[in-house]
């Protein structure tokens, strides 16, 4: 759950009171003059994904083995592209149509992945594929309550949600505040 929260708070641009582990990695990177160039989801064995964080110190690239969830959370903080191989997408990827995204139906297995990187050539990765422009709807049941809550109370609730590290709730509250401004 922690890994998903680390990814979600970066995507939602929520700033926690204290830096999370992945934020610390970014601070260390800047302090020691290295950046994350890319994230590579490098393998899938027996249902377990493997990843590499590719860093650069200005002279050379260095690959660091990492859990994919950590690699993605760190990559997002450095705005690094995330890559994988065609064979991994073929084995684990799914394709959602707009209707399936909206209705929450299960998606079919990916079939035509010819536009992605060659299967086993790590030096020739495809450009990252941007997320679809259609947004995935989140149903939380609490949004109707938020509409009837004062702005002052919303700000108070937002601070509490962040302190409690309930980042999904914090994002929902933040969105309601942004709608009103």
TrEMBL record:
Compositional bias per record (Low complexity), positions renumbered to this chain: 132-144
Domain annotation BFN: ranges: 1-96
GO molecular function annotations of the record: nuclease activity
Entry-linked Gene3D superfamilies: Bifunctional nuclease domain
Residue stretches making up the UVR domain: 148-181
Region described as Disordered: 99-150
Annotated Pfam families: BFN_dom (PF02577), UVR (PF02151)
Record's protein name: BFN domain-containing protein
Source species of the chain: Persicobacter diffluens
Lineage, broadest ranks: Bacteria, Pseudomonadati, Bacteroidota, Cytophagia, Cytophagales
């Amino acid at each position: 759950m922690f890994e998903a929260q680390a990814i979600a708070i970066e995507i939602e641009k929520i700033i926690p009171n204290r830096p999370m582990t992945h934020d610390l990695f970014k601070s260390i990177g800047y302090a020691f003059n290295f950046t994350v160039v890319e994230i590579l989801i490098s393998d899938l064995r027996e249902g377990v994904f493997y990843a590499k964080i590719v860093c650069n110190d200005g002279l050379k690239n260095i690959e660091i083995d990492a859990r994919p969830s950590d690699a993605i959370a760190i990559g997002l903080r450095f705005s690094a592209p995330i890559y994988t191989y065609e064979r991994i997408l073929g084995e684990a990827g799914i394709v959602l149509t707009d209707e399936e995204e909206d209705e929450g139906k299960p998606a079919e297995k990916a079939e035509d992945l010819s536009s992605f990187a060659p299967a086993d050539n790590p030096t020739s990765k495809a450009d990252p594929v941007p997320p679809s422009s259609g947004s995935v709807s989140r149903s939380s049941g609490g949004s109707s309550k938020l509409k009837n809550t004062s702005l002052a109370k919303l700000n108070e609730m937002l601070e509490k949600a962040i302190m409690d590290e309930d980042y999904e709730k914090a994002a929902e509250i933040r969105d309601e505040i942004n709608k009103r401004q």
